[in-house]
Fold this sequence. Notes:
The chain has nine helices and no strands. The chain is mostly helical. The chain folds into two domains: 5-83, RNA polymerase sigma factor, region 2, helix turn helix motif (Rna Polymerase Sigma Factor, Chain: A, Orthogonal Bundle); 105-187, Winged helix-like DNA-binding domain superfamily/Winged helix DNA-binding domain (Arc Repressor Mutant, subunit A). The protein is elongated. 21% of the residues are buried.
Amino acid sequence: MHVSEVDLKVDSFEALAMPLFEQLYNFAHWLTQDREEAEDLVQETYAKALKGFSSFRLGTNFRAWMYRILRNTFLTSRTGLKATMTIPLDPDEDGPELAVEHETPETLLFERSNRDLLQSAIDELPVYFREILLLCEVEEMSYQEISETLSIPIGTVMSRLSRARKTLRDRLRPQLQGRTTAGEIAKGTNHGL
């Protein structure tokens, strides 16, 4: 049986690309914040990647290459252009970290509520902060992989990640501190009552 070079390329592309489908969809969904737009973005990413597969250099990071195509496709889309137009101010205040104790039904309720707060705060972040948090914390990419994916220096990856975490912390702190008293009461740790 004779296999053409085109068939071989399509087969090798499929073997490399299909295991990344779920991860790429999750990243697209976080970027677009819309299921249908995420599906379209992933579809367009795979079409562009297949078309440009001949330009992929073997021995380089295929995963980072696919993420870079997805990100660039997003940034040139109408949604991506809209999302990248805002620039946040970065306040410089750091406060105390909140302590975590053993789980009770009440603390589980607070955790679920806090998870919703976290998701909401992440959704409000500018795209360049959301994407770097997702790549680092959810996709567990190394700084090098993130650097390759976003086409930015590693120093920029580290500073942007630091600023993203700080912005997220600053947005969450006032809401979480308001809940601390109720949480302490639920845990039985507010001995001043």
